[in-house]
Amino acid sequence: QVQLVESGGGLVQAGGSLRLSCAASRRTFSRDGMGWFRQAPGKERDLVATISWSGGNTYYADFVKGRFTISRDNAKKTVYLQMNSLKPEDTAVYYCAATGRLYSRDYVDYNYWGQGTQVTVSS
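^ that's the sequence the OP posted. Answer follows.
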């Protein structure tokens, strides 16, 4: 069973930065594509960024491109999301997810989810 634990959320002013971390317990983590998703109140869960098993491929949603960076450390079994130039519309619960595939941009491929961490950006 995969356990994913997010951390690093909090309250930040617009223009500020946060770094989210996701610690995974899955034995085959180094072969899992990983992703960050977010869900604002009353809205659907959106894909934010994905990263391949090696870190060699990444994908960003248009609304975070140029501001957020996804990365991973397979030795530490951890995925990161560096968020810069935060905006009030980035306020959401951010979820880390794992897919059994080496890489995917498809929401339906993500089978393992963390509990989420709240990010609140004040104006």
